[in-house]
Every structure is written in structure tokens, then in C-alpha cells.
């Protein structure tokens, strides 16, 4: 019952001033065990805020991050799953599934979390899961202004991961859920 | 507070373990876990076979599994029927308190806190308590689990010794003991196992178990995997330690229909009928102090002086049942004693339920807990008395010495327990009532004395008319109680009742507001008695002839019913003997042997005008009684009907009258009995020895009671055929069951009243003297006693005369 928050592309203060109030009220400390951040926070204050939600924070470098010490990619193991983090601006074409799959194989992870497109996506692909939590603040991206604030919460329990997607659509929080199961020895299939 | 929250989580459970709570020794005596389970009411104390035990065990375990399933939330499990729960509400981050995730997080919070507490508990037993199997318990539960664990260890010990009895042909499922708590896999496992159990037959192992010790045999049977209920019925089982521990814990916290419910100590509870708004734990702490004041008033006053409130240390002591004061081994012994006590409320007095006494003391177990606390305080008495301020005193109390003589403490606790129980019997302010089977009459007596002396003599001039009703009811109750506690001879019953009455009288004297007219409280009587005492003391030696006759008649009437009652009851001779021996006691105490000169001998060593007067009065009464006997008896019949109504009011309601009555009546009676004096005296001599034996059980109180009895007997003696003393006492104790003529009853009642007056006089005197020293029961000195002695003599004479009639 490990709760992992996947969040990213906040672009505070350049493109957005703050998280949506409804998101902030939901994100209370104590419930979440890990935070995975794809990047572009962009300032230290956001880092500190996320740290207050959970002490175990993993951030990868986005192109607008002011802290240059974040790594380009990161891998970690939670429960039975291996997770990989990358901002995604390095993977060209941006948001392309095959390229992301290449990165996934490179990192040798079960779950790959990337961002940069500011669009929520979740694929089951070649024995792995590729998740894009979107932009938590709804900041405009390089190619579109129409961005809904969203983030992802993963519930890792043994060999099963449940992905909850929280989106702010028209001022209301919508939640969706996706189940992924990992077989003991083989990787996830289509 | 983590303890509170953990307790709170358990309080959600709706089940209770109900059962009798008497310890059963025998083959299970050494299995502490099983014994405690019996004591706490989880297992039946009277089981016909091992099968029953197993069945009850299995049931309780099923109940716990049920509860657990209900309460411990696994958010992954969908509720039945709904495959797509409302995600907006039910997601992990939902703020909605109803969501399953919300509940899950709340329980996770509790878990964490409890873990924290546990990790700090019993560091010296770290090997056991810090293992993963122990997580999730707190301080009350930990010893319970430890005890279960010890039991299981014993089981494995036995197993090793007698391996052939334990061969288990069952294809065992593997089980991870680490998953004892809050592991959802365990729940699933349990379910699957329960299914398996059902498929097993009840094949009992047929081996030569009889060769073994009954104890070993029991252990084997209890743990037989193929016995009743299969695996679930194994009474000593590692797998179900969690279940069993929960059951024990639940029983302890809730206290099956008993008065000691630990949960009360932690949370606010508004018990029905509780008049106080105090927290139960505060109330229990003050009960503890009250018991201390009864047992050792100097220490109590010292503590009060310093300003040490009982709840400063009482809170900790009571809430974890002394878990923090003793090492684990000692604690287990103490808990043995506590659990062995019956936990049900003791309703000896149905008089007043609301506001009387302390809740914690109304059951033997509660009384034992309070007594334990008091005996702990007494153990470090000297160091407490030496402290100068509250801080050091509290320090001493909160850091109980480590090397203690536990046996001594427990022994003292047991003796105080009886004291506590009785201390709670009487109602409110002077919280002490007569003791039926008090082993330490000395203690009771001594404690009563200071209260007597302390209380100011508030003169009571007006007695409510309902007093006599109350008195009648009192007498009825006393009678019923005595009948309930059958198994004693009537004589001893009466004796004790007399003592009780006497004690009540003496104690309630100090009650500032004695006039509570309700169903037979002692207040009315005590108030009356107090007034009587005062009047009597004022008017010792005063005789009013005008009242004599009336009183005499009244007493005569009373005597006759009592006499008949006596006839039906007992051997008259014995009673006579008792009476006279009482008198002998009195005289002996007074310093003079009961001599033939019942009439003439003052029998009071304490010089004093009153004494002499009393003696003379008594002697005169005796003589009068003998003389007037005939007259009285002639008057008895026609006057009987109105007597009951007039009797008690005459006797009791009027202070001076009653005070005088006893004296005068005795005097008149004496006159009547003068003719029979010789006969009476002869009986008196012979009975002395018997009386001694009868009263052997009671120490100094016997003397007082003897006084009273002989007073009574003397007052009623005239009418008694079979023995005035017994008749009087029986009338006092209600000859309800006797179909006695109303007149006799009334007469007996009147005599009773007089005797009680005399008693009260004695009590007062005694109390005054007792103020100087707490335990000066043996000293029966005083004018009052002398008076009583004489009065008793006369009463006895009367009874003899009457019996002869």
C-alpha cells in the first residue's frame, strides 16, 4: 500500500503562480510515501513545498529548472516495481511512444514517468507502463495553451499498481483509475 | 493520548464476553492464560468438558475475526456489488471522511501511535515485545499477550515431552506469525482455514491420556487439533493469540456486566444513576483515598495535608492496573489476584443505589483494586509520612520501590478488600457499614471510633414520623439479609446483625445530615440513636414512673411476640445462656464478674454516678420485670393491635422517652421479675460459657453486641419463653417469618428499641473514648456501658421471667 505521487511541469513562477486550490487541499502530508517529479518546478520554493508533502522526493531536470543539480534521469524501486523518471524534453519526438519505449528499455524499468507535453497519458507498452502526469498547474506548453491541470497518484501494492488520475476539468476534480498488474517473472504485456 | 485512541478503536466492537467469573482450580491452574480467560469471563468457569472450552474458544475467536474484517479496512477490496466505486469520493487523496481510504488512513495513524508506545514498553523483555508479532498492542494488552505466549511455551514444552500425543496428521498450511496484526493476507488465510476446519471430523485422539497428569492431559486435549472445533478450538494456540488477546482485552476493558470497566477509566462515561459528574477514574481515586482513610487515617490525613490529590498517582496506577509500578513477573501475580476476584456488583444493600458509595468499590474486583492501591501506599507508609512536601511525596509514590515483598502486599490487599467492600455498603458520607463477615472487626471498629468522636454531637429534636417505617424496613432488611446469608446459626446472625446495627448507629452518628428518610437507611436510625444517646446521657438515672408502666406494657407486648418467635426458632435455654453470657461479658468488661447479684451488683468498674445509677436502674428493672410480668402478659393480648403503631414511635421517636424507656423499662421489668430472679440468675451463670463460644468469632465487638443483646434480651426477656436475648435479637432482626402474635412482636420491638438506645449510649461512650486511640476497642469503659450492663441484666431477668410464664 505504497502511495506514490507523480507530478510535474508546474512552471512556477514563470507560467503559473500556484497549484489549483482544489489540488492543494487534496495534497496533505502523511498520506503519500514518495513523490516523483518530472521537472520544471521551476524554483526552489516549489521543491520545498513538495518536500513538505513527503520527505522522499525525486526530481529530474527540466529545461526551465533553476536548480541545475537535478539529474537527467532517475530510477528507483518501490515494492516490486522499478520506476524510471525523465523530464522528456530529451526524447525526440516529444511524447512519441516508441522513443519513450526506447528510453524505458534503456533504463530497464517497469514504469516510466515523463512529462514535458503537459498532457496526461498512460500507455501499456511492451511489458511496461509509460505515464505522463501532465502539468499540475495547467501551465501552457510549447505547443498548446489548452492544458488541464492534472497529476497522478500510484498505489503500488505487491504486484499490482493502481493509477489514479486527478484532473481539474471546468473547476471540478475528476478522478480516474487504471489497473496494471505485473506478472511475477515476465514483464507487462499489451 | 495513544492509550486512549487505541482504546477507542477497540470500543467500536459490539461484542461482549459474558460469563461467570469464578476461578476454577485444577488441571488448568498452571495455565495462566486459560485461567485469566476464565476469570475475565471469556471462557466459562464451569465447563463440563474440554469440548465446551474449545467451543467457546472457537466462538470467541470467530467473533474477533468478524470484527476485524469489519473494522480493518482494505481499500482494495471492493464492497459487494459495486464494481466501480465513486472515484471522486473513494480515491486515496479524498478528503471525504467516509471514504474507505479515509478510514484506512485513520487506522494507519492509530497503528503508528500504538507501535510507538509498544516500542517503549517493557524494554527488559525486549526479545519478546519488540518482535514484529507484538506490534499493535498497548500497555494493558501487552501482559495479556505475554501470558498467552507463556502458555503456548508451556504447551510446546509439554509437546516436546509427550511427542507421541501430538502427532499431527493434518496437512498443515504454512503460517507466518509475523502477520499477526493488520495484515490482510492473514484475514484471507483465516477464512480459508475456517473452511478447512469444517471439513474435519471430530475424531478424538484415542490414546492413553489417562496415564498422564490431569494437567498434561488437559493441555493435550485443549490443543488437540482434531478435537471439537478443530484448529479453531485449540485453546492454547499460537495462531490465535491475536484473537484470544483481543477477547481478554475486551473483557478487561468492558468488564462483563461488572463494575470494573477499564474503559471507563480512560474515557468519560456517564453511568446511569451516577450522581457525580466526576470522571470515573477520579471517583475511583477518591474511593482509594476513602479506603485509605478507613484503614489508616493518619497516613490519609498526612497526604491530605500535603495536598496530594489521589488522582495524581491514582490515574497511572488505576489506568494500567499497576502495570507501571511493578516488574512484569510481579505484575502477573497481582493480576492473577485481581482477575480472581468476582467482578459482579455486590448488592448487599438494596436500599439506595444512587449516589451511595463508590462505583469501583461495589464489586469484589474493584474493591481489590482499590485495596491494592491502599496496601501499596501502606507499604511505603513510613517514607510517605516522612515527606515534607507534596512533590517528594508524589515522587515516592510514583517511583514505587523495586524490591518488594509482594506476598505481604497481596495479603494486606486481601484483608483490605473485605474492608473496602463493606466500606461501600453503607450509603454516602460516612461510608462504612456494619460488617457481616468481617475478619478484622478491630479495624472496622477502630476506624469507626475516630469518626464518631470527630462528629459533633448535633442534637436532634425532631424525628420524622416515617422513622419507624424506616426502622421497620431496616429490621426487615436485616432479617432478609440474615436469611440470605444462611448457613449461620440464628444466634450468630443476630449477633452480627446487632453488631452491624450497632456499628451503623455509631458511625452514622457522625453524619451531619442524618435525616434521610428513605427505605431503611441507617440514617434515620442513627439520627434517632444519636439523639437518644444524648438524651440518655443527660438523663441517666432519671426515672419517670409515669412512663414506666407504659413502657413496660409496651415492652411486654413486644416481648411476647418475640418470645413466641423464639420458641419456634431455637432452644430457649441456649438463648438464655447467650443472654446471660452477654451480661457476663459486659460485667467482665466493666470489671466485675457477673455475680449472682444481678440486681445488686453495680457491675461497673468505672465509677461514676451514672454507672451506679444505671446499675441500680438495671437491677431495678430486672426486678420490676419479674414482678410485672404477669401484669404485662395480661395486658399484652388486648393491647397488641395498637402497639405496633404506637410502639416504635413511643420508643424511638421521642428522644427522652426512648432514652428513659430503656432505663425505665428495665427498671420496671426488673420489678416484675424480682420473683424470678433466682431462676434467672441461675440461667445466666450457666449460659456464660456458651455465650462465649458463640461469640468467639467476633472480637471486641462481641462485647458491645453482647451488651446490646443482653440489653435487648433483658428488655424482652420478660416475654420470652425461650430466651429473651434471642427473642429480642430475633425481633430486632425481624421475626417476619414467624407467625407470632402481633402483640409479642410489638413488645419485642419495643424492647429492641430500648436495647438499641442502650447500645447507642455505649457507642457514644465508646466513641468518645476511642477518639484517643484508633483501636481501643478492648476498652469498654464508661458510664454508658455500665448503664448498659445493668440494663442488660434486667432485661435478662425479664426474659427469664417471661419464659417461665
Task: Explain this structure.
The complex is a heterodimer of chains A (190) and B (805). With 190 residues, chain A is mostly beta strands. Chain A has a single domain (2-181), classed as Purple Acid Phosphatase, chain A, domain 2 (4-Layer Sandwich). Helices cover 14% and strands 36% of the residues of chain A. In chain A, strands 3-2-1-9-10-11 form a six-stranded mixed sheet, covered by helices on one side. A five-stranded mixed sheet of chain A has the order 4-5-6-8-7, with helices on one face. In chain A, strand 7 and strand 8 form a beta hairpin. The two termini of chain A are 25 Å apart. Chain B is mostly helical and 805 residues long. Chain B has helices at 2-11, 32-40, 50-71, 87-90, 100-119, 126-129, 141-161, 184-198, 214-222, 241-254, 262-266, 280-295, 297-306, 310-319, 328-340, 364-379, 381-386, 390-398, 406-423, 441-454, 467-484, 490-508, 522-538, 545-569, 572-590, 609-639, 642-653, 655-672, 677-694, 700-717, 724-732, 742-770, 783-804. Chain A binds chain B through residues 1, 3, 25-28, 30-31, 153, 155, 157, 162, 164, 166, 173-177, and chain B through 75-76, 87-88, 91-95, 104-105, 109.
Q: Major β-sheet of chain A, in short?
A: 6 strands, mixed
At CATH level 3, the topology of chain A is: Purple Acid Phosphatase, chain A, domain 2
| Percent of residues in helices of chain A | 10-25%
Question: What is the radius of gyration of chain B computed over CA atoms, rounded to a whole number of angstroms?
Answer: 32 Å
| Total of helices of chain A | 3
Share of residues in helices of chain B: 55-70%
Terminal residue distance of chain A: 25 Å
CATH architecture of chain A, by name, is 4-Layer Sandwich
Give the oligomeric state: heterodimer
- Model regions low in confidence, pLDDT < 50 over at least 5 residues of chain B: 1-27, 78-84, 124-137, 163-212, 266-277, 348-356, 426-465, 485-493, 503-527, 539-666, 672-737, 770-780
Low-confidence stretches of chain A: 186-190
Secondary structure class of chain A reads mainly beta
Biggest interface found: A-B, 19 and 12 residues
Strand content of chain A: 35-45%
Average pLDDT figure of chain B: 54
Mean pLDDT of chain A: 88
According to CATH, what is the class of chain A? Alpha Beta
Shape of chain B: elongated
**The biggest beta sheet of chain B, please?**
none
H/E element order of chain A: EHEHEEEHEEEEEE
Organism (chain B): Citrus sinensis (Sweet orange)
Protein name (chain B): Rab-GAP TBC domain-containing protein
Protein name (chain A): Vacuolar protein sorting-associated protein 29
Family (chain A): Belongs to the VPS29 family.
Amino acid at each position: 500500500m505504497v502511495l506514490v505521487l507523480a507530478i510535474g511541469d508546474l512552471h512556477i513562477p514563470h507560467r503559473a503562480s500556484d497549484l489549483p486550490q482544489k489540488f492543494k487541499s487534496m495534497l496533505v502530508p502523511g498520506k503519500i510515501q514518495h513523490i516523483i517529479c518530472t521537472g520544471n518546478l521551476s524554483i526552489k520554493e516549489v521543491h520545498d513545498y513538495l518536500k513538505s508533502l513527503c520527505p522522499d522526493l525525486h526530481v529530474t531536470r527540466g529545461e526551465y529548472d533553476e536548480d541545475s543539480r537535478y539529474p537527467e534521469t532517475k530510477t528507483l524501486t518501490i515494492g516490486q516495481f522499478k520506476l524510471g523518471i525523465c523530464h522528456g524534453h530529451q526524447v525526440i519526438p516529444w511524447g512519441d511512444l516508441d522513443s519513450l519505449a526506447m528510453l524505458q528499455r534503456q533504463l530497464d524499468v517497469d514504469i516510466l514517468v515523463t512529462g514535458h507535453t503537459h498532457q496526461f497519458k498512460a500507455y501499456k507498452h511492451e511489458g511496461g507502463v509509460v505515464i505522463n502526469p501532465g502539468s499540475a498547474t495547467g501551465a501552457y506548453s510549447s505547443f498548446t495553451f489548452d492544458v488541464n491541470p492534472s497529476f497522478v497518484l500510484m498505489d503500488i501494492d505487491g504486484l499490482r499498481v493502481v493509477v489514479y488520475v486527478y484532473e481539474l476539468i471546468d473547476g471540478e476534480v475528476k478522478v480516474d483509475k487504471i489497473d496494471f498488474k505485473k506478472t511475477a517473472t515476465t514483464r507487462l504485456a499489451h | 493520548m495513544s492509550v486512549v485512541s487505541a482504546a477507542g478503536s477497540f470500543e467500536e466492537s459490539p461484542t461482549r464476553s459474558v460469563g461467570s467469573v469464578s476461578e476454577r482450580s485444577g488441571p488448568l491452574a498452571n495455565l495462566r492464560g486459560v485461567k485469566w480467560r476464565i476469570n475475565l469471563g471469556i471462557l466459562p468457569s464451569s465447563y463440563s468438558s474440554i469440548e465446551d472450552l474449545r467451543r467457546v474458544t472457537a466462538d470467541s475467536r470467530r467473533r474477533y475475526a468478524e470484527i476485524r474484517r469489519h473494522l480493518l479496512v482494505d481499500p482494495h477490496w471492493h464492497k459487494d456489488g459495486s464494481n466501480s466505486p465513486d472515484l471522486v469520493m473513494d480515491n486515496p487523496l479524498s478528503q471525504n471522511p467516509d471514504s474507505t481510504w479515509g478510514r484506512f488512513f485513520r487506522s494507519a495513524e492509530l497503528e503508528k501511535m500504538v507501535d510507538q508506545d509498544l516500542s517503549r514498553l517493557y524494554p527488559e523483555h525486549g526479545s519478546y515485545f519488540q518482535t514484529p508479532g507484538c506490534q499493535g498492542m498497548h500497555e494493558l494488552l501487552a501482559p495479556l499477550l505475554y501470558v498467552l505466549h507463556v502458555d503456548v511455551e508451556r504447551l510446546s514444552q509439554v509437546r516436546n515431552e509427550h511427542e507421541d500425543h501430538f502427532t499431527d496428521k493434518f496437512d498443515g498450511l504454512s503460517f507466518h506469525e509475523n502477520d499477526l496484526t493488520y495484515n490482510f493476507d492473514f484475514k484471507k488465510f483465516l477464512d480459508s482455514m475456517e473452511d478447512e476446519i469444517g471439513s474435519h471430523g471430530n475424531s478424538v485422539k484415542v490414546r492413553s491420556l489417562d496415564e498422564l497428569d490431569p494437567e498434561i492431559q488437559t493441555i493435550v486435549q485443549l490443543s488437540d487439533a482434531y478435537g471439537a472445533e478443530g484448529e479453531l478450538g485449540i485453546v492454547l494456540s499460537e495462531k490465535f493469540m491475536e484473537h484470544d488477546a483481543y477477547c481478554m482485552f475486551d473483557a478487561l476493558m468492558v468488564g462483563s456486566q461488572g463494575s470494573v470497566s477499564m474503559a471507563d477509566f480512560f474515557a468519560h462515561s456517564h453511568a446511569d444513576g451516577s450522581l457525580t459528574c466526576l470522571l470515573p477514574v477520579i471517583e475511583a481515586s477518591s474511593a482509594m483515598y476513602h479506603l485509605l482513610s478507613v484503614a489508616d487515617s493518619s497516613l490519609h490525613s498526612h497526604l491530605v495535608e500535603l495536598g496530594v490529590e489521589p488522582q495524581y498517582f491514582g490515574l497511572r496506577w488505576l489506568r494500567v492496573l499497576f502495570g507501571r509500578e511493578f516488574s512484569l513477573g510481579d505484575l502477573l501475580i497481582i493480576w492473577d489476584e485481581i482477575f480472581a476476584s468476582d467482578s459482579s456488583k455486590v448488592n448487599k444493600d438494596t436500599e439506595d443505589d444512587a449516589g451511595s458509595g463508590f462505583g469501583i468499590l461495589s464489586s469484589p474486583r474493584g474493591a481489590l483494586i482499590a485495596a491494592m492501591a491502599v496496601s501499596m501506599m501502606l507499604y511505603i507508609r513510613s517514607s510517605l509520612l516522612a515527606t515534607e512536601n507534596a512533590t517528594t511525596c508524589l515522587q515516592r509514590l510514583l517511583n514505587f520501590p523495586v524490591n518488594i515483598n509482594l506476598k505481604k502486599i497481596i495479603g494486606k490487599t486481601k484483608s483490605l478488600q473485605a474492608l473496602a467492600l463493606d466500606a461501600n455498603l453503607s450509603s454516602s458520607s460516612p461510608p462504612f457499614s456494619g460488617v457481616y463477615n468481617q475478619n478484622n472487626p478491630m479495624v472496622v471498629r477502630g476506624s469507626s471510633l475516630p469518626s464518631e468522636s470527630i462528629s459533633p454531637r448535633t442534637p436532634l429534636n425532631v424525628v420524622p414520623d416515617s422513622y419507624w417505617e424506616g426502622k421497620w424496613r431496616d429490621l426487615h432488611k436485616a432479617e432478609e439479609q440474615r436469611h440470605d446469608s444462611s448457613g449461620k446459626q440464628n444466634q450468630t446472625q443476630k449477633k452480627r446483625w446487632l453488631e452491624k446495627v450497632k456499628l451503623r448507629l455509631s458511625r452514622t452518628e457522625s453524619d451531619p445530615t442524618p435525616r434521610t428518610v428513605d427505605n431503611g437507611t441507617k440514617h434515620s436510625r442513627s439520627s434517632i440513636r444519636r439523639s437518644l444517646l444524648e438524651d440518655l446521657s443527660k438523663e441517666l438515672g432519671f426515672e419517670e414512673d409515669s412512663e414506666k408502666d407504659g413502657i413496660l406494657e409496651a415492652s411486654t407486648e413486644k416481648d411476647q411476640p418475640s418470645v413466641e418467635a423464639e420458641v419456634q426458632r431455637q432452644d430457649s435455654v441456649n438463648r438464655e445462656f447467650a443472654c446471660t453470657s452477654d451480661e457476663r461479658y459486659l460485667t467482665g468488661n466493666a470489671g466485675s464478674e457477673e455475680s449472682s447479684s444481678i440486681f445488686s451488683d453495680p457491675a461497673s468498674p468505672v465509677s461514676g454516678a451514672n454507672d451506679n445509677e444505671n446499675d441500680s436502674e438495671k437491677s431495678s428493672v430486672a426486678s420490676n420485670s419479674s414482678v410485672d410480668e404477669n401484669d404485662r402478659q395480661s395486658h399484652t393480648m388486648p393491647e397488641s393491635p395498637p402497639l405496633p403503631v404506637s410502639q416504635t414511635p413511643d420508643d424511638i421517636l421521642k428522644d427522652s422517652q426512648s432514652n428513659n424507656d430503656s432505663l425505665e423499662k428495665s427498671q420496671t421489668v426488673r420489678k416484675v421479675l424480682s420473683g424470678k430472679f433466682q431462676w434467672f440468675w441461675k440461667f445466666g451463670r450457666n449460659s456464660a460459657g456458651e455465650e462465649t463460644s458463640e461469640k468467639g468469632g467476633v472480637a471486641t465487638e462481641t462485647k458491645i453486641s453482647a451488651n446490646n443483646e443482653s440489653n435487648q434480651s433483658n428488655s424482652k426477656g420478660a416475654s420470652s419463653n425461650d430466651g429473651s436475648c434471642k427473642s429480642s435479637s430475633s425481633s430486632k432482626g425481624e421475626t417476619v417469618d414467624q407467625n407470632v402474635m402481633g402483640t409479642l412482636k410489638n413488645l419485642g420491638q419495643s424492647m429492641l428499641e430500648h436495647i438499641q438506645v442502650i447500645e447507642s449510649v455505649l457507642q457514644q461512650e465508646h466513641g468518645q473514648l476511642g477518639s484517643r486511640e484508633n483501636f481501643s476497642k478492648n476498652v469498654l469503659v464508661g458510664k454508658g456501658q455500665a448503664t448498659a450492663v445493668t440494663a442488660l441484666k434486667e432485661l435478662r431477668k425479664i426474659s427469664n421471667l417471661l419464659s417461665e410464664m
